[in-house]
Structure formats: structure tokens, C-alpha cells
Design goal:
Structural class: alpha+beta
Oligomer: single chain
CATH class of one domain: Mainly Alpha
Number of helices: 22
Radius of gyration: 26 Å
CATH architecture of one domain: Orthogonal Bundle
Shape: globular
Strand content: 15-25%
Number of strands: 26
């Protein structure tokens, strides 16, 4: 990696002229052990620091693409497309005659690169990544710019050199667009359309600011994250996969490079390009016409044995990859030392239990890593429920691990500070890195400006398993909301106290939430936060002053909730998430179908004795959601499994947010505990 970066640096500094640079580049690429996709990321970062000449940037990109073509039969993190013999041969434009594959000899057809425009509309500004089917660019949409759109940037994926040679490449991209459009979920990247400009076939999608998970895992010295932070990322990935599986799709190339961590703390799954239908509906004519699995594209380090053996796709293939990534997040290394699953099975390898991981969590992770499909965890929901029940054995160990630096301004920002050696995007020039956990800040001097509330809330937005907002008065910060019991509250207070201008930090209005409810917070917390920033006003509490004060109900007691509707006419949904990963729907229900609420009205739910406390006992979480339109068009069953309901709810809320805006959705949380007599 250093030699590749050094070659670019020498060119930028004038130490090498272009002929010498390309000669050195070819030598570097010929022996480079790194992921070719990561080389493209490094090229983009070097170009961002000091722009390269357009023709140089494009040529380096093409040579890396040809390196990928040469490695397509090998393992590693890159996705490789295996085509029929000769199908990937480059063609002589004048004779139309295929030329034998030569990764460094034959020149590819002239393709557009950074600084050029597709179809007179999309200006390619930066290469930001590489997927199984193509190179991804940040692009300026001139039509959006003309319309004064506040977000004129999109992402464009252009088919790679070796993939363009496949006879079904255009069909593949069109199918990917259709599949991705059908998978509308907050943890799945939004795909807009596909098109072509001459030989360039491309897909347009939402532009995300952040970094791929692969960059976090490959950071020098990375040795794993605390359990709470791993759970937040795993929950986002699992929600995306569960939603896709529920719609009949297996990702088939799930890997860290296809998981994106946004600067806002969200998790997005990308590149459903080779997803194959496993629930083949007879009316789906596309299934009989084209199967993306025929491309033979996969990533050996994360592919299940069944995928490597060309067996029919199954959700358990994605669960194997999810478990591999989870193991890497916890430990910093691959469970099978980056060997393919078939090699690991032949060698009789067994992954070791990550230090400090609870027994239940290790059992769930180990079942997900099973090298035989029949013994592997059957559903993503079961994997997440098993892995998310509890946490690390030692609370002290969790607090110590938090010193790695994942609270405060978010995982990626602190990785940028402490690992990559540079400030995150938006940080002031010359700013110092955030303080380590446990650091104390001195009271600000009289002439120090008060802290910016936006900066404080941006820091809170990156805290896993939480829903937090802050108000700032002079130099005092008052935080309110909800935080996982496993979270490092003291460390977070220290980080906020270290912000410029902060003298005191209060967490008196922060309520603890059991870590088993983290998947629920992951879905609803962004809406709770947006509603609070918009002014709030809705409310949810246990009826009766005594019950509300102790937040405890005993077996046989009636469950009665007092609800205050938001300031706009809305439809109320009230659910209670139990310790056994189930959810009970209190409103609407068969006896109370009408859940419309006038602005600001209050009402009691369960006052007729409809609900009473029974097993299972433990930490419960009530959630009220107020939406401008009904959350669901049909009545839900009285109780159901949490994972499937959360996935459907997340997708529905995302559509409502697009139509009505984030401030139109009100969310309130109420954690309480139940016990036996």
C-alpha cells in the first residue's frame, strides 16, 4: 500500500515524470497484495488532496481495473466476475476481433473519467468506491443544480472493464436497478435509474457521505469495537438483509465493502447487483429470463461453502457473511484467517470465542458461522435476537474498550483522527482530535464562546443504541433522551465536556434502556430526534403518578398508558416490545380500530382492562408513533415477532418521511420493567 501511495506522491511532487511514473506503477501493481478496490479508494483520496491531470487519473484507474480482471480467479475482498472463456476478451474496435486477455498489455476502449460528463447531465467529480459490478463516482446532477436542489449530488456506478465484456451486463444492471428500487428500506441505498452513454453503462443512486465498513476494518491497528457499537452496526446490516429476504432476495455478495457507514451514523447496504430470487414466484417472468447468479460473481472470504459450490441461493448464505463481518467487528480479524469457507471446512477450522463475549451471543455467532447450511442459523431475525440479548461479560471491559474512540463524534470521525491521522470532514483547520474517554476539561475562560448546539447534537448522533438531544444554555449542556445501559455514559459526558466552550454537562434527564431493545431504538431514534429538534410536544407515560414514578409493574397489574398526541392531526400507533423479542400492538387493535387523534388531545390506552402484565418479565419498551397517514393500511395481529415488524415499520416510515418530511413523524419512548408477584 505504501509503494502505491508513494508512487502517486512522487508524481504529484514532481519527483517522477509521467513515463517513469507509469513504469513504476506497473511494477507496483504487478506485486501489490492489496485489495484492488482499496487501491481505487486510495487513488480517489490522493486525487482529492492534490488533483491529478485528468488523463493520468483515468489511466491509473484503467490499469487498476485491468489488475482486477487479472485477479478474478483469486480470493480476497474484491468481487470477481467469472465469465465464459473468451467472453471477457477485449476487442479491437477496428476489426471487432477479440484479443486475448492481457492485464497490462491491451488498452481498453476510451472511457470517461473524473471531470467528464455523462449524457450532458452528470459531471463525474470523484471516484469513491468499487463494487462487484462497477466503479462508483460522486457526480453532480446538473439538472438538480439548475433547479436549486439543496442536494445536487448523486452516486453513479459504471460497469467495470471485465464486466462490460459479459454479454448479459446490461441486463444485469437493469435488473439491479429494478431489484434495488423494490427494496425501499432505510438501511438499503436508494437506487434511482440506469442508463448508458456510448460504451458506458451506469446506474444512478443516492450519494452517501461516509466510508465503507471495509475501511474501518482495514485501519492499521484495528482490534475490534465494543459490543454496543458492534450491535448498532450489526442491527443495521441485519435489518437490511431481513427486509430483502422478506421480499425474496438474497444479496449473494455481502461483505464489508458493501456496507456503508454514513457520517450521520446510519448503516447502508449497497450493491444488490447479483442478488438472486430464492422465492421464485411463477408470475415473475424475469426469473426465467435472467439470473444474476449466472455471472459467477462472489467474494471468497465471505461466501458460504454452498455459494462456492454453485448451489441454489438461500438466506443462510447471507447469514454466513453477516456472521463473518460481526466476528471481524468484535475481534479485528476474520474468523477463518481469510481462507475461503471451503478451505476452512476441509481444514476442520473452528473460530475461537471472542474475549469477553457472553455465552448467548457466542452461541448465536457460532451458529451463524456454521460451515454446513443445515446447521446454520435459519433467519437473520434469529441471529440478531440471539446476538443482541445481553452483551459483553464484563462491564469494565466494555468501558475500557470504549477508549478505542467510537463515542462522541461517531465511529468514522474518530477513526479518521486516531487511525488515519487526519481530521474528519467539516473539522476546523488545525483542530485537535477529540479527548480520550475519561479526559476532563477545564472550565472555559470568560472570553470563550459558548458551545454550538449543533456541534453537541452532532456528537450525540453518533452514539450507538441511543436517542439523545441536547440543549445549550451559556456554557452548560443539558442532555435528555435514552441511552443503553451498556453504554459508557461517563465517557460520553467527558467527551462532551471536552468540546470547546462547555463547562458543565448534565445527564439527569437521560433514561436507561436495556441493551436488548437496541434494535428498536435503531429504527425509531432518528424520528424521535428529528421530532424533538422540531419542538416536540407529544407524550407517553404509565397512567398513575405512582406507576409512572417507579416505572415498574407487577404480574396481574393492568397496563394503562397515557398518551398525548402531537400538535398536528395524526394517526397513533402504540406498541410494547417485550424481553422475548416480541411486540404487542396496543393501538390500533380489534377493539379500537380508530386511531385518529386531534391535535394535542390526550387519551388513556388500556383503561378498560384490555391489557395486564404477564410473562415474560423484564425490561419492556413502549413506543408511540404518530404519523400524518395510517402507519399500516390493515390491522396487525395482536402480537408478532419483533424483527419482521421492525423491518416493515422502518420501510413504511421511510416512505412517509419522503412524502411528509421527518418532522411530521412523532415518536415517544417509555422504558419500564415488569416482574412476577
Amino acid at each position: 500500500m505504501e509503494s502505491f501511495a508513494h508512487a502517486i506522491y512522487q508524481l504529484q511532487s514532481g519527483a517522477l515524470q509521467q513515463p517513469e511514473f507509469f513504469a513504476q506503477l506497473d511494477r507496483v501493481l504487478a506485486g501489490a497484495p492489496e485489495s484492488a478496490g482499496l487501491l481505487l479508494e486510495m487513488l480517489s483520496e490522493a486525487h482529492a488532496r492534490k488533483p491529478l491531470p485528468r488523463e493520468v487519473y483515468t489511466e491509473v484507474q484503467h490499469r487498476i481495473e485491468r489488475l482486477i480482471a487479472a485477479r478474478r480467479q483469486q480470493g480476497g475482498d474484491d468481487t470477481f466476475v467469472q465469465t465464459r472463456p473468451g467472453a471477457n476478451a477485449m476487442r479491437d474496435p477496428s476489426s471487432k476481433r477479440p484479443i486475448a486477455d492481457d492485464p497490462f498489455g491491451a488498452e481498453p476502449e476510451r472511457m470517461k473519467g473524473v471531470g467528464e460528463t455523462l449524457n450532458g447531465r452528470f459531471v463525474l467529480e470523484e471516484c469513491i468506491g468499487f463494487g462487484g459490478m462497477g466503479t462508483v463516482y460522486k457526480a453532480l446532477d446538473l439538472r438538480k443544480l439548475e433547479a436549486a436542489d439543496r442536494k445536487p449530488y448523486i452516486a453513479i456506478k459504471v460497469l467495470n472493464v471485465q464486466f462490460r465484456g459479459h454479454p448479459k451486463s446490461l441486463i444485469a444492471l437493469q435488473r439491479e436497478a429494478r431489484k434495488a428500487q423494490a427494496l425501499a428500506h432505510p438501511n438499503i441505498v436508494s437506487v434511482y435509474d440506469f442508463d448508458r452513454d456510448g460504451p458506458m453503462v451506469y446506474l444512478t443512486m443516492e450519494y452517501l457521505q461516509g466510508k465503507p465498513l471495509s475501511q474501518l476494518l482495514r485501519a492499521p491497528g484495528f482490534a475490534g469495537l465494543p459490543y454496543a457499537d458492534v450491535l448498532r452496526i450489526v442491527t443495521g446490516m441485519a435489518n437490511a438483509l431481513a427486509y430483502a429476504h422478506g421480499h425474496g432476495f438474497v444479496h449473494c455478495d455481502f461483505k464489508p465493502g458493501n456496507v456503508f457507514l454514513t457520517d450521520g451514523g446510519n448503516v447502508k447496504v449497497i450493491d444488490f447487483g447479483i442478488a438472486r430470487v430464492f422465492q421464485k414466484a411463477e408470475e415473475d417472468v424475469d426469473v426465467t429470463v435472467f439470473d444474476a447468479g449466472s455471472l459467477g460473481a462472489l467474494t471468497p472470504a465471505y461466501a458460504s461453502p454452498e455459494m462456492l459450490e454453485n448451489r441454489d441461493p438461500d438466506p443462510r448464505d447471507d447469514i454466513f457473511a453477516l456472521a463473518c463481518i460481526t466476528y471481524e467487528l468484535l475481534t479485528g480479524h476474520h474468523p477463518f484467517n481469510r481462507l475461503s469457507s471451503v478451505q476452512a471446512r476441509s481444514a476442520g477450522m473452528r473460530p475461537q470465542r471472542p474475549p469477553g463475549l457472553g455465552r448467548a451471543q457466542w452461541h448465536a455467532l457460532k451458529c451463524g458461522l456454521a460451515l454446513e447450511r443445515e446447521t446454520r442459523t435459519p433467519t437473520v431475525a434469529r441471529f440478531l435476537d440471539g446476538f443482541g440479548t445481553g452483551g459483553m461479560v464484563s462491564r469494565h471491559g466494555l468501558a475500557a474498550a470504549a477508549a478505542v474512540g467510537v463515542l462522541g463524534v461517531g465511529v468514522l470521525a474518530l477513526v479518521a483522527w486516531h487511525v488515519l491521522g487526519r481530521a474528519p470532514a467539516g473539522a476546523p483547520s488545525g483542530a485537535a482530535p477529540p479527548a480520550a474517554a475519561g479526559a476532563l476539561s477545564a472550565p472555559p475562560a470568560a472570553d470563550v464562546a459558548a458551545p454550538d448546539a449543533a456541534d453537541v447534537n452532532a456528537a450525540l448522533a453518533g452514539v450507538p443504541c441511543s436517542a439523545l438531544v441536547a440543549t445549550v444554555r451559556a456554557h452548560a449542556v443539558d442532555v435528555q433522551g435514552f441511552l443503553s445501559k451498556a453504554g459508557d455514559q461517563d465517557g460520553l459526558k467527558d467527551r462532551l465536556a471536552a468540546l470547546p466552550g462547555v463547562s458543565t454537562v448534565s445527564f439527569d434527564r437521560v433514561k436507561p434502556v436495556d441493551s436488548a431493545q437496541c434494535p428498536v431504538l435503531a429504527v425509531f431514534a432518528p424520528y424521535w430526534t428529528a421530532y424533538r429538534h422540531a419542538g416536540g410536544g407529544a407524550g407517553l407515560r404509565l397512567a398513575g403518578a405512582a406507576a409512572s414514578a417507579r416505572a415498574m409493574l407487577t404480574e396481574g397489574e393492568a397496563l394503562v398508558l397515557d398518551v398525548k398526541a402531537p400538535a398536528a392531526a395524526s394517526f397513533l400507533s402504540v406498541d410494547v416490545y417485550s424481553p422475548d423479542a416480541g411486540v404487542a400492538h396496543l393501538l390500533p387493535n380489534a377493539l379500537a380500530l380508530d386511531n385518529r387523534a386531534a391535535p394535542g388531545t390526550t387519551k388513556s390506552i388500556g383503561s378498560g382492562g384490555e391489557w395486564s402484565i404477564g410473562k415474560p418479565f423484564g425490561a419492556e419498551l413502549a413506543v408511540m408513533v404518530a404519523t400524518p397517514v395510517p402507519l399500516f393500511d390493515t390491522l396487525r395481529p395482536e402480537t408478532e415477532a419483533r424483527a419482521g415488524y421492525l423491518a416493515e415499520t422502518a420501510a413504511r416510515l421511510a416512505r412517509i418521511r419522503v412524502q411528509s418530511g421527518p418532522g411530521a413523524i412523532a415518536v415517544e419512548f417509555l422504558p419500564f420493567t415488569t416482574r412476577s408477584r
